[in-house]
Amino acid sequence: MIIARAPFRVSFCGGGSDIPSFYEKYGGCVISTSIRKYVYLTINKDFKKDEITLKYSQTEIVDDPSKIQHRIFKQCLTDFGVTGVEITSVADIPAGTGLGSSSTFTVALLKLLYTYKEKSVSAYKIAKEACEVEIEKLGNPIGKQDQFAAAFGGLRYYEFCPDGFVKVEPIIMKRSSYRKLESNLLMFYTGDVRDANKILGEQTQNLASKEDKIAAQKKLCEMTHELKEAFERNDVDALGPILLKSWEIKKSLANGISNPKIDEYYAKAIEAGATGGKLLGAGGGGFLLFYVPNEEGKFAVRQALKELKELPFEFDNAGCSVLYTE
Question: How does pLDDT run across 53-76, given as a tens digit for each residue?
Fold first, then answer.
């Protein structure tokens, strides 16, 4: 048996610039951190060597990879030529909540299959191949940041070059600043899950042709550079105002990114003491993230959003990893 896991991520600024229609012309950049919430995958030899058993939210038993219904399982098992195995999947957080679950799953699955094949691969190769699976082979209208965040882990700055290369750079700051950042972030579940592909599909089209949307995305990249410099100066409190401004810009990039209910929750948190926040992921539902710089404000924000489920979390530094092999 082999057990692999990959972390979910929280994106701070720059999301959308990792979409090919934008970065291939202008370049892009994102700052995100992985968190200690994971997708876990196990693989074991199946009792029947000519069968594949998959257990996730459903159970599939097939005698050929081409018959698999789960698109990512189907693509990866076909690519690796793996049969006669049983694979199970569990996650700390549901899919469709804005934390990069699909890409996290893909990264963990590739790590699992390479280990099963007794091959050692770099985090960059895992991330690159996860992008190829999701974007090129399956045609999903998504970006690259989630795959790299799940593979590398940690608080990092990702630069997306027009030629497709991704530069990965850790954010270096004092340990006390790192702890302060972790402590001042609050995350709340709105109760809605959504399919990001519809919103991202529209955003992809907008970033390919509409000048106002392109200008807005460029502004988000500028703010990402500003945030990187602020973090490196140990000015963690700069995150709040940048989140506040970037969220207003992000809402303009496509329809459905926000809605009246989300706007209401957001306004309550800001009034209670959060200096900024955003909806994680493509939009439409999932988790709201807020930066709250003092304890009084944290109490007030929690009271203002007490109808929502809070998700306590810590930062992850390990990225995708194998936990157990036998």
Answer: 999 999 999 999 999 999 999 999
